[in-house]
Amino acid sequence: MIAYIIRRFLSMIPSLLLASIIVFSFIHLIPGDAAQVMLGDMATPEQVQALRVSMGLDRPVWVQYSLWLSNVLRGNFGTSTFFHIPVLEVIADRAETSIFLAIMSIILIILIGIPIGILSAVRYNSFVDQFFSGISMFFASIPTFWLGLNFMIFFSVWLGWFPTSGFPSVLQSGDWSNLRYLVLPAITLAAPNSALIIRLTRSGMLDVSHADYVRTARAKGLSENSVNLRHIFRNSLITVVSALGFTFVALVSGTVVTETVFSLPGIGRLVVESLLRRDYPTIQGIILVIASIYMLINLLVDLSFAFLDPRIRYN
Amino acid sequence: MNLRILYKRKIALAGFIFIALLLIVAACAPLIVPFSPLDLNPADKLKAPGVPYLFGTDNFGRDIFSRVVYGARTSLIGGTGVVLFATILGVLMGAMAGYFRRIEPWLMRLTDVMMAFPPLLLALVLVSILGRGMLNVVIAVGITYLTRTARVVYALTLKIREEPYIEAATASGVRESMIILRHVIPNMLSPIIVQATFTFAFSLLDLAALDFLGLGIPPAVPSWGNMLSEGRIYLTRAPWLLIFPGACIVLTVLSFNLAGDVLRDRLDPQLRRNIEGV
User: Is the residue at B1 inside a domain?
Assistant: First the structure.
């Protein structure tokens, strides 16, 4: 098992390298002079030249890449061309909002998606199943930003239950009631992703519902609840867990939109702002961090299979 | 079971009718609209829905109904572009990876890594680098779906290349490129069509999100996403700026999802999981 974990870790290295090459190449896809584009038309030729030298843009591409990579490996993602502070600090400043938002949405996704998925599978083809499959297809078809705007009109403007936008820091003020600012964004973010989890839980359970051990469990007189939860659901957990891992990318995409709609000071909005400001070092840093987290999550998902399913023996 | 299929078909029929209607509206846009979608009319700005402005007017006094009709055109062109780009390249890449085992590890590693980039983020970066414009937006969104299509096609090719008719073609000396084009690809057309339908539905959501974030089609072009982006600040004063274009996106995406669902049941029930897993 330990050997497997180590090997699985090592196999991430080529993927990470490839990801770093893709992220690195962003700057070189910019038509024209990258330094000029980043600084805009107002910059003096001296400023442009200074940025060109400081980013190493005047050297051969492979030298640039190896310098950039060795810096990244030492935790130096470069300097934001807008804030003029290290990229990692810019990201860290915005991390709190996004982390709280992600945790709240994942809790919602699990609490909504899994029970409804189980119910739909157990009551396969019934009215309940059709009702929820209709609802989940509907929520999978709504643009996240439009859903957020509608929630804002309805719950914040008309009913006045939640604040419309912004998020004062919880960690700095120590005031946990600030989390109410994130309730609507979290619901907005959770809606389409819960729909996905409902569908995958349902189909995962239906896949195993005709297995021999399920028939045996019924034959020996176990109650329906016990068959459904302890035999069918537990065996479909692998599908559900890998779906949750996959949800991460969708969550990040959703975060970009949701944070913009609700004006939250998070990483998602930082992405859009940095793109509009052409602050490419920041963009590169964020995307590389996100891709690494995704690969790490997938690794954890794979490892969790060994615990969820004792039949899986890695060697 | 029969009941469920009948019920599904009724709703799906509504979806197909909506898609047909949308195609007609988009094709005949100039004949349908009462006003030009670009005409500014400051005297009539932010008018509520009624006569003569069916869906109301925006902050420049432009007719929302006319803009929604032209927006249908923009959306359909964009979605079609993404589907063509992703399907043609994805099918070629996937089939080649599945047929020529040498390039398989490279391609699979590349698609694996591409999956680690959130689709919307990648599209945003590409548009910001390439510039706003229909073609750039289509490429930016299409790249994500390209890798997904490639993976589905790759899995199918692995199965098909073991079929006797491929062996027969190889034995009779047909060139490999001909085998892929004439034998492998035509034999997986139905799952490709199903995949393309879902790609269309989801790409419309991405295209709208790009417009909304200000990194999509140029703001001068009437598109549903651009209308929502501009109407956002009038959230409380003029909700009709948001209701109509938003509802159009939902209905269109929903119709294509319903259509895809029925096509999948009809054309190829075994493939359900392969595509749902994406």
Answer: no
| CATH code of the domain in which B158 resides | 1.10.3720.10
- Tell me whether residues B120 and A287 touch, CB distance under 8 A: no
- By the 10 Å C-beta count (0-12 exposed, 13-18 middle, 19+ buried), B98 is classed as buried
- A295 contact residues in B (CB cutoff 8 A): 116
According to the model, what pLDDT value does residue B270 have? 55
ipTM: 0.84
Tens digits of residue pLDDT in A263-285: 999 999 999 999 988 888 899 99
Phi-psi label, residue A158: left if phi above 0, alpha if psi -120 to 50, beta otherwise: alpha
- How far is B65 from B54, CA to CA, in rounded Å? 6
At residue A86, the 3 state secondary structure works out as strand
Convert the pLDDT of each residue in A204-225 to its tens digit. 888 888 888 888 888 888 888 8
Query: Is the residue at B157 inside a domain?
Result: yes
Nearest CB to A287; choose among B7, B121, B208? B121
Domain that holds residue B127: 8-38+49-276
- A79: helix, coil or strand? strand
With contact defined as beta carbons under 8 Å apart, do A8 and A302 qualify? yes
Instruction: Chain A: give the shortest CA distance to residue B256, in Å.
Output: 9
Rounded CA separation A92/A85 (Å): 12
Residues β-bridged to residue A86: A79
In a domain, B100, yes or no: yes
Q: What is the pLDDT of residue A312?
A: 64
- Nearest-CA distance from A90 to chain B in Å? 18
Share of chain B above pLDDT 70, in %: 93
Distance CA B271, CA B261 (A): 12
Do B99 and B160 form a contact (C-beta atoms < 8 A)? Answer: no
Q: Is A258 exposed, middle or buried (0-12, 13-18, 19+ CB in 10 A)?
A: buried
* Min distance A253 CA to chain B CA atoms (Å): 5
Residue B83 located in a structural domain? yes
Which residue from B26, B28, B63 is spatially nearest to B46, judged by alpha carbons? Answer: B63
- pLDDT at A180 exceeding the cut of 50: yes
Which residues are bridge partners to B63 per DSSP?
B57
Give the closest residue to B126 by CA, choosing from B114, B138, B113: B138
Reference B134, options B223, B200, B68; nearest CA is B223
Cα–Cα distance list, A170 to A108, A178, A217, B4, B239 (Å) = 20, 6, 49, 49, 33
> Are B130 and A280 spatial neighbours (Cβ–Cβ below 8 Å)?
no
Name the average pLDDT for chain A.
86
Q: Is the pLDDT of residue B278 over 50?
A: no
Which of A142, A260, A295 lies closest to B213 in CB terms? A260
Please state the domain count of chain B. 1
The pLDDT > 70 percentage for chain A reads 98
